[in-house]
Amino acid sequence: MRDLDKRDVITGDFVLVIGDLISNINLDSALAQHRARRGKDPNAIMTMVLRESGRDHRSKPRGRKPFFFIDPQHDRCLHYEEISKNDRRDRRFHLDSDLLAKPEIDVRGDLVDCSIDICTIDVLGLWTDNFDYKSIRSSFLRGVLQDYELNGKTIHTHIVDEGYAARVSSLRAYDAVTKDIISRWTYPFTPDCNLMRGHKYRLLKNKIYLEAGVVLARGSTVKARSILGKDTSVGDGSTITNSVIGRRCQIGKNVNIRDSYIWDDVVIGDN
Q1: Could you tell me if 144 and 138 are in contact, meaning their C-beta atoms sit under 8 angstroms apart?
Q2: pTM for this one?
């Protein structure tokens, strides 16, 4: 962020996303609301895109849970905290007395942070001016909210109930997001859309994806929610279930692969 500000390559509003994000959320309404709000109030510097979700969605991070304190009349974020899901001693909010004096506050712990922020160039300037900012939520967001009386900058929310957004921030998240991609929650970002150069996947029933050149022996079985990459071969009597197999793999006879990830060029002998 500081480097972008230094290079002076961004001259207007921009969309900030985390590099490990997978999302198909339509941002048209969020952008429209941000621009309208910005036209009325130049101090409205950022709009966070958040998604309503069930309490135990598998793509949610398990370590810490974010809570957003929102003014429902203006969709303005007034306070932000993260609490530990595992440490009972770290489950208290630290609220300012002025916040409690607000006539109405929505406390939202049911939201998925999409890691999509619509920002003005003021955001870059604030990052440059505050060298202690290290993360967009725990330091930048909290810092701007705490300094409201000093700088008057506001951060707002746009809550959606459609679309998919999740970060691949851990091995558990990688597994969860992969399952969601296979189940087509991320459409059009699915294997058979072949968005990557050189990919030639096709979708079969039961959410099975096969790339060109896959060779299946007559007695082999590929079951639901599986992906097989280019030029992979599966021997007689072998079964693949709920797994991702890379390219140019050789799987022998009578092999049972379940709930697994196997990368390119792996050789598995006969069982």
Answers
A1: no
A2: 0.86
